Amino acid sequence: MTIAVENPATGRIIGTVPDLDATAVADAARRARAAQPAWQSLGYDGRAAVLRRMQRWIVDHADTVVATISAETGKAYEDALLAEVNYGAAAFGFWAKQAPRYLAETKVRSSQPLVAGKRLVQRYRPVGLVGVIGPWNYPLTNSFGDCIPALAAGNAVLLKPSEVTPLTSLLLAQGLAECGLPDGVFGVVTGRGETGAALVDEVDMIMFTGSTATGRRVAARAAERLIPASLELGGKDPMIVLADADLERAATHAAYYAMFNCGQTCISIERCYVEEPVYADFVDLVTAKVNALRQGVPAGPGSVDLGSLTFPPQVDVVDRHVSEALAAGARALTGGVRPEREGHWYPPTVLVDVDHSMTIMREETFGPTLPIMAVPDADEAVRLANDSAYGLCASVFGRDLARAEDVARRLEAGAVTVNDAVVNYTALELPMGGAKPASGIGRRHGKDGITKYCRQQSLLVSRWHLRRDVHTYPYRAGRTRLLRSLLALLNRGRRRS
User: What are the beta bridge partners of residue 462?
Assistant: First the structure.
């Protein structure tokens, strides 16, 4: 069986991929396990050489990669270039360089007398075979991108991309092969949900990005198998605008990071709280900026600001959230009406007169919407921002940096930016992940972003020792009294002066 891949901006079929069953996934897993030891034995330098060649390959083939991403997602050329191609190239170089440092052996010191004179070492070993289940909104960054640190650590990897956007993963697999990655080390298993379920049953660790509901099922199956799982799930990311904020900058970022990739970003701005003294001016600025956006079928650089939505059911979600808000008393200052046209579209929509009784303020919308709510003060903004099952990302805007940072530190989110938004994701040194269960467990980026693909091993090497350790058999009363006295001396706290 095959799956038709559609251009969501036009509704046209642009390719087909196999819908692989559990047997095919098991075969791919066997090939990957057979190839993994040789890949691991190349060491960091050998693996880095392949990764750096792939970094150059992405740059050299940027137009082809962008065209593939744009065709299967409907996103604008610049969205694909800045958030996907740029990320992918940077990630290959970053993990090639940082893997040896993040996974370096660490000497451990101990105060325990029984290990005096011995060498204690903490080290990392690859888990073996990593499975990655990727989302449809970022087929390179949040799908293929998770494979890069796993490969750098010495693992074999099987990627199950979304059935909606599989072509980018297949293109990049071709690039890896051209860059010298040994056969079998990386594989793409295309298919629907059953393929993903089969993948969880075959691997030693699973990395999943997607909805909270599906993440729960992945976590439950991983728990049954007792394998580690890292999950990046939903977000309902708040933005707080303080009364002293640079309103031009705040409005620019609100418009851009709420609508970027047509709002289909897990850390995009999904709700906005503005202190009352500047609320009206902020709304006017944002409305003008959003009204000026050009939405249409991407046709190369500079052709549109927004493309289409990618996943057909997501248009229904966006339409429902907006319609319910309007019925409950909200007003749409831009957009707000689903168009009748070929493809999967929803216009950029700014909503006011919203409150937390509305779904659009509580559930992940994942579309080009920005509900804006007035608040009396920062305390109320923090309370409302934290009134959510999600805790992925947040942002605060204010000229008084000490106050803005204080507000940021009170937010229950895994990542918070001050006078900026979303750009933290490009800092690969900075860990990224949820602070609440609905937003997932585990981290991308930083040291945690690669050690999660490894097993820890502790080594104790006895360099010099007595002919017979005093604590071993046979027990003797005299030695026991000596040991008891020694233990009392070592563990007695200092007397207070």
Answer: 118
Closest C-alpha among 292, 382, 389 to residue 335: 292
- Read off the pTM: 0.95
Mean pLDDT (the chain, rounded): 96
Residue with tokens 């229950």: 412
Q: Which fold has domain 2-233+445-455?
A: Aldehyde Dehydrogenase; Chain A, domain 1 (3.40.605)
Per-residue exposure over 320-348, b if at least 16 CB sit within 10 Å of its own CB, e if not? ebbbebbeeebebbbbbebeeeebbbbbb
Mean pLDDT computed over 71-78: 98
| Closest to 182 (Cα-Cα) out of 65, 41, 18 | 41
Tell me whether strands 205-209 and 349-352 are parallel, antiparallel or unpaired. Answer: unpaired
Cα–Cα distance measured from residue 214 to residue 220, given in angstroms and rounded to the nearest whole number: 10
- Bridge partner residues of 372 (DSSP): 272
- Better-scored residue on pLDDT, 149 or 483: 149
As given in the structure block, the two tokens for residue 63 are 């137009």
Q: What is the pLDDT of residues 42-64, one digit of tens each?
A: 999 999 999 999 999 999 999 99
Cβ atoms of 38 and 182 within 8 Å: the answer is yes
Could you please state the CATH topology (level 3) that the domain comprising 238-428 is classified under.
Aldehyde Dehydrogenase; Chain A, domain 2 (3.40.309)
Torsion sign over Cα 156, 146, 45, 461: negative
Q: Which of 232, 270, 275, 364 is catalytic?
A: 232
Q: How confident is the model at residue 146 (pLDDT cuts 50, 70, 90)?
A: very high
Summarised one tens digit per residue, pLDDT across range 295-309 is 999 999 999 999 999
Annotation marks residue 232 as catalytic: yes
CA distance 333 to 124: 54
What is the distance of C-alpha 42 from the center of its chain?
28
Q: Where are the domains of the chain?
A: 2-233+445-455, 238-428
